[in-house]
Amino acid sequence: MIINALIDLELTQSSGQTSQPPWKKIIGSYSDLVCINNNPTIFNVKQSGENIDFSYTGNVTEDVAVKKVKEIYDLDFDLNKFYRYLDNYDELKDMAKFCNGLRLFQAKDPFECIISSICSANNSIKRWTKSISDMKFKWGRNFNNYYSFPTPKNFNEILLDDEEELLNCGCVENNNLKDCGVGYRAPYMRKASEIFTIEMNLSDISKMSYDEAFETILKVPGVGPKVADCILLYGFGFKQAFPTDVWIKRIVSYLYFDGADIKVEKVREFGMDEFGEYAGYVQLYMFHYARKSGLMEKLK
Fold first, then answer.
1. Are 168 and 155 in contact, with CB atoms under 8 Å apart?
2. Cα 129 to Cα 124: distance, rounded to the nearest angstrom
3. What is the pLDDT of residue 171?
4. Per the confidence metrics, is the pTM higher than 0.85?
5. Catalytic-residue membership of 226
6. Rounded to whole angstroms, how far apart are CA atoms 207 and 200?
7. 52: helix, coil or strand?
8. Which listed site, 53, 201, 202, 292, has its alpha carbon 20 to 30 Å from 98?
9. Full DSSP string of 115-171
């Protein structure tokens, strides 16, 4: 079925958003396992002009499946209205041209987004997406050769490294977190799984205010302000989040502060105050505009 909503599916998939790795691409169609109320469902999406062509296989109703795919690709967000908003800013008005059709790629599994975001810190897109894909293959639920992400409870039982595997199993079979290439992040990930198994329900976060959710996520080891904002934006739909790292700092400084060396914390505050409900989208477009327009090279 065709869902009428402007989107560049390839750009959205490849944009490095830490909700999840890109979906499996087969002959121009992207597909992945989406669990809806514990029902494993295979979603397939492909580009159809400026719109999305969607099909699925699973024991859920069409209305439920369509609602879920709209959530994942944020298809109810009015991109044309957002582009009119960008046109009001001299600093931003060229971004729609370079990033036309780019949408938020929202988490199909919030816990996967938390682990992906932790894994992405000081890491390349290629490496963290491979790590997450390896975790799904090793410990996820298999459904027709598609794999879900482990639940927090199951994740909490995964061994950390070769030493712990040897101690617990008497041998090393590369069945541990560090074997997935996560390095020093492994203990942070397991602590996160412990927190969301014992101390906190993931579903509670979406019911919080942004400030309460931000402070809550910051309590997870290995999560600083930038990772927390990624989790809130991609995992829970808090569009007022403005994830800020050194690159966003350089871009904002160039566009708004004549290249002055301003603190990351101030850039985050500026982005949230200046762009409000569009902050998350502006951040996403800023980063990809800088990559595509050549601005990134200029700022190195």
1. no
2. 9
3. 64
4. yes
5. yes
6. 13
7. strand
8. 53
9. HHHHHHTTS-HHHHHHHHHHHHHHHS-EETTEEPPPPHHHHTTSB-SHHHHHHHHSS
